[in-house]
Amino acid sequence: METYNLVSFAGVFVLLILAWLLSADRRNLNWRVIGWGIGLQMGFALFIFVFPAGTKLFLFVNDVVVAVLDSATAGARFVFGRLALPPGTTAESGETSLGFILAFQALPTIIFFAALMSILYFLKIMPRIIRAFAFLFTRLMRISGAESLSASSNIFVGVESVLTIKPYLNDMTRSELCTVLTAGMATVSSNVLAVYVFSLQDQFPTIAGHLVSASFLSAPAALVMSKIILPEREKPKTLGLTVEPYYERESNLFEAIINGANNGVKLIVGIVALLLAVLGLVALADLILGGLGGWINSWLGIQIDWSLPGLLGYLFYPITLILGIPPADAGIAAKIIGERVIVTELTSYQDLNIALEQGLLIHPRSAVIITYALCGFAHLASLAIFIGGVVALAPKRTTILAQVGFRALLAATLACLLTACVAGTFFNRSSLLLG
After folding, report:
1. CA 42, CA 315: separation in Å to the nearest integer?
2. Phi/psi at 255 (nearest 5 deg)?
3. Exposure of 365 by Cβ count < 10 A (0-12 exposed, 13-18 middle, 19+ buried)?
4. What is the rounded distance in angstroms from the CA atom of residue 90 to the CA atom of residue 109?
5. Phi/psi-derived region of residue 144, left when phi > 0, alpha when psi is between -120 and 50, beta in every other case
6. Residue 377 sits in which domain range?
7. CA-based nearest residue to 385, from 373, 400, 401
8. Alpha carbons 373 and 367: distance in angstroms, whole number
């Protein structure tokens, strides 16, 4: 191992200690969850990054995702024409791309992937996969079947994963509900994963494989951090039990496609509205902070970046060093990772792409670690979305969900950072996974 690999490995334990210090009950820890959670992460990362068979599987998954993504753009190209052409490409008609345009190139793929996931649910393929992961988590970690099912669902889907545990929500403990929220925010759905691939594929050819890998790694990380931040004090009704995923199956395949596509449209509207509101508010906050900060800087004779991303960058700077990012890249990395808390991971991935384009990141490992650290919905807007989604299905749990919400956001953030540490531990400079 190189020095930075050892730093990332040590970072795993630093993050666990930090989570313990922030725990609601430091004397009540489920060591089985912690041991198996870290073990599963390490084993999966070792297989993917080190073993030739794992590397070949990784590259195969990357190629499959890219191929599917190319198919997903067919509809967008037909509807939007030249606007939908990815940067550097030319259509059969001879028209060239106008550059990267989020609204016409990346977001439309959400509709395709939403329809694809709906088809996989209708064919009972996805429920079987989710059930297999849930069985693994339940047996190894001895947690409740309901929260295992929730964590497993979130590997593949987003807030709609709550539907798979709908019958159990009203009887779940505080710790279980915290885990449900944490798992939702520590992972990303396949629908929006395509957007990240579109944003970074030119600068980072194997980004698709890394994002899929991160989604799998983050599920056990979410369970670990959630159970440390808010340990179980009660006895869950589904403790140690294997429960079946709940879902409402359409009457035929065509109905599944229609419903999936419509859900994709709703998701796009939600994402666009979120970006317009959040980025506008952040710009306003930066304007105010910049004015006050400029006065303070001139008065004290110092130079501080008073923008929200800048302030979060200062806060996350020591954390980026813990992740194993070299000091030369830590400043820009801290800003990209830190801003995700406010401006969402989509904007952070865009900024990562800009940093790679401009050569601001010197070390290849920095881009890989940042990719894993950002792969999750761990931000304030997502917290509101997930709490709202659960409340819609279980109104009686509103008070408890509001109480555990910020602990879940904290756990989700730490889970994403834990996943980044694991990736940094096994990163190899000569690896084919860099693309």
Report:
1. 27
2. -65, -35
3. buried
4. 19
5. beta
6. 3-434
7. 401
8. 10
- In the chain, the amino acid numbered 21 is L
Q: Name the residue type at position 105.
A: Q
The tokens describing 429, both together, are 């400079």
Q: Residue 239 — φ and ψ, nearest 5°?
A: -60, 125
* Tens-digit pLDDT profile for residues 221-238: 999 999 999 999 999 988
Listed in sequence order, the residues at least 6 apart from 203 whose beta carbon sits closer than 8 Å to its beta carbon are 353, 356, 357
* Rounded (10°) angle between helices 125-141 and 108-122: 80
Residue 82 DSSP one-character state:
G
Of 331, 342, 337, nearest to 283 by C-alpha is: 342
The structural domain count of the chain equals: 1
Residue 269 near residue 67 (C-beta atoms within 8 A):
no
- Look up residue 238 and give its two tokens: 């589904």
Residues in Cβ contact with 273 at an 8 Å cutoff, skipping those fewer than 6 apart: none
Spacing of C-alpha 69 from chain mean position: 19
Q: Which residues contact 114 (CB under 8 A, 6 or more apart)?
A: 191, 260, 261, 263, 264, 267
Q: Say how far residue 198 (Cα) sits from the centre of its chain.
A: 16
- What sign has the CA pseudo-torsion 89, 95, 96, 100? negative
pLDDT less than 70: residues of the chain: 1, 86-102, 105-106, 159, 429-435
What own/partner pairs with CB < 8 Å and gap ≥ 24 does 393-402 have? 393/162, 393/163, 393/166, 393/169, 394/169, 394/170, 396/170, 397/169, 397/170, 397/172, 397/177, 400/174, 400/177, 401/177, 401/181
Q: Supply 119's token pair.
A: 């088809």
* pTM of the shown model: 0.88
Assess contact for 204 and 367: CB atoms under 8 A.
yes
